[in-house]
Amino acid sequence: MLVHDTVATGRSQADTDQIRASLRARYEELSAEYEQAVLQSQVLRLVEVGDTAGDDQADSGTKTAERDTAQSLLRTILDRRAQFERALGRLDEGTYGFCEGCSAPIPVERLEIFPSATACVTCKQSRERRAA
């Protein structure tokens, strides 16, 4: 079960520790995934540098697309890792599990599916409508 502040919610320290361990584990997984993606990106660049002779426009376009995809993957992993880092910070502050928009508790089911959630469904939908 994912929980919030032990005083405000009446949840135990053991529950908070369980959440911290879960968030930390996911953060570490994303860090390892990032390191692996960086290595793959470096290999891709080395292959590109050593294998440009005879490239036509299609080859150059393919290499550019592969490079862009690799960079996009790196940014996505970094963004997700930052979300978990922020969730850990919120847990330490005692604000984890409460919506940043309306301060209502975020349903446990939402946190179990999306542990780095910072908004309840209603506030999240409102933000998305405003952004559109």
Textual characterization of the structure:
By secondary structure, this protein is mostly helical. The protein has a single domain (6-131), classed as Four Helix Bundle (Hemerythrin (Met), subunit A) (Up-down Bundle), CATH 1.20.120.910. It is built from five helices and no strands. The chain has helices at residues 6-9, 13-50, 57-93, 108-113, 121-131. The longest helix has 38 residues, at 13-50. Residues 1-7 have low confidence and may be disordered.
Largest sheet: none
Q: How many E strands?
A: 0
Helix content: over 70%
Based on secondary structure, the structural category is mainly alpha
Query: How would you classify the quaternary structure?
Result: single chain
Mean pLDDT: 84
Global shape: elongated
CATH superfamily name? DksA, coiled-coil domain
Query: In percent terms, what proportion of residues is strand?
Result: under 5%
Second rung of CATH, namely the architecture: Up-down Bundle
- What would you report as the Rg, rounded to the nearest angstrom? 20 Å
Helix and strand succession? HHHHH
Indicate the low-confidence ranges by residue numbers: 1-7
What is the rounded distance between the termini? 33 Å
CATH topology grouping = Four Helix Bundle (Hemerythrin (Met), subunit A)
Classified by CATH, the class is Mainly Alpha
> How many distinct folded domains?
1
**Tally of DSSP helical segments:** 5
What are the defining features of this structure?
0% strand, single chain
The gist of it:
By secondary structure, this protein is mainly α.
